[in-house]
Amino acid sequence: MKRRELLAAVPAGVAGLAAPALLSLPAQAQGATIKVGVLHSLSGTMAISETVLKDTVLMAIDEINAKGGLLGKKLEAVVVDPASNWPLFAEKARQLISQDKVAAVFGCWTSVSRKSVLPVFEQLNSLLFYPVQYEGEELSKNVFYTGAAPNQQAIPAVEYLMSKDGGAAKRFVLLGTDYVYPRTTNKILRSFLKSKGIPEADIMEEYTPFGHSDYQTIIANIKKFAAAGKRTAVISTINGDSNVPFYKELGNQGLKATDVPVVAFSVGEEELRGVDTKPLVGHLAAWNYFMSLKNPANDDFIKKWSAYAKAKGLAGHKDKPITNDPMEATYIGFNMWAQAVTKAKSTDTDKVIAAMAGQTFKAPSGITSKMDEKNHHLHKSVFIGEVQADGQFKVVWKTPGPVRANPWSPFIPENKGKKDEPVKT
After folding, report:
1. What is the DSSP string of 286-325?
2. Is the pLDDT at 385 greater than 90, yes or no?
3. What phi and psi values does residue 270 have, to the nearest 5 degrees?
4. How far apart are alpha carbons 147 and 268 in whole angstroms?
5. Tens digit of pLDDT for each residue in 332-351?
6. N-term to C-term CA, the chain
7. Cα 257 to Cα 27: distance, rounded to the nearest angstrom
8. Cα separation, 64 vs 199, whole angstroms
9. pLDDT at 400
C-alpha cells in the first residue's frame, strides 16, 4: 500500500501515535549498521600522533565485526579529519552526532581539541572516548577519559626525577607547547615542586607554539640554566611534530641524559620514529604502556597490530609496526564501550554510561584495567622508560599496581577540600 493509503486506513488517534513512535527510534537502530565516529587529525601538526589512533579504532572495529558485530549488527566507521584545527573539531563532532548519527565518538588528542568539542557532546548527549594523558580539572558525564590524569603520569615522573634512582634533580625546566594541557600541568608541577622545597629560582618555564621547529636557542638556554651546578632535569609537554626538531636539536647540541635528562609526557614510540635516537639514549618518557612490555596480552596486541598494518599497507607500519600508549588507551576504551553496549543491550547514551561503570579489560600493559565507577577514568599502572638506540623504551621504574585517577589535583589551591564526587548524570 502507498503511504497515503496506509495512513488513511489507520484511525486518526492511532496514526497520531504511530509516526512519532517511529521517529523516536534511535537512528542507529533503524539502519543495518551501528555507526562509530573517528575524530582524529589526519593532517596538520598533530597528524604525526593522531593518524595511528584512527587506524587503531578501525582495527578494533574489524575485530568485533569478525565476531559478528554488536547487537546483531556490524559496526561502521565514519572517519573525519579536523586537520589540527581546534574549532573544526567542534564542527566535525556536531556533524558526526547530528548528521551521521554515530553511537559514540573516539577521538581528540590535545586538550584544546577536547575542550572545543565538549559542549557539543554535552548539548547533544553523545559519548566521547578520549585516549590521551591530560591535565585533569574536568569531569563530564559524556566523556570517558582513558588516558592518564596528572597523578597517573606527571607527578610520579617528577617524583622519580627527584629520587636517588632518578638522579636526584634539584632544578627543573618546564618546557611545553603553548596551550591548556602544558600550562595547567606545569601549574600543578610548580605547586608540587614548591611543596618539596624547590625555590622559584630553580624552575625555568618556557612555551612554544604548535608546529615550532627552531629549538637551537631554547636548548642553549637550558644548558646555561643547568650550568648553575645543581642537577637539572627537563619536563617536556611538547606536543605534535615539534618533538622531532626538539629531539634532533638535543642530539645536535650534545645534551645527553647523563647531563640533563628529559622526561616527556607526549613522546612515545611513534613520535621517535623519525628521529635518530642514538644520541638520545637514557632520556625518559612517562606513560602507562610501552611496546617493550613483556606479557601475553601485549604480545597478542602487537601481533594483531602487526598483521593489521601489513594487511592494510599502513604507511610506516607495514614494515616496522609500532604500538604506543594512546593506541593502548584507544583499544581499551573501544573494547569497554563494546562490552557496555552488549551489557546494556542498547547504544543509548545514558544506558551505555551506566553500563560502563566498573567495566574491566585485560590491557596490553599487563594489568586488568578498570573503569572507575564514579569518575569516568581508568585505573592505570605508571611506567617510566629510558629511550633505547632502536627507538624503544626500557622500563626503569613502575608503580606496584594500578593507580586510581584523581581528576582534581590537590596541588591546585582552588581544589582544596574538593571531593571526588561521582559524575552527574
Report:
1. EES--TT--SHHHHHHHHHHHHHHHHHT-TTTSSS----H
2. yes
3. -70, -45
4. 14
5. 999 999 999 999 999 999 99
6. 44
7. 54
8. 53
9. 95
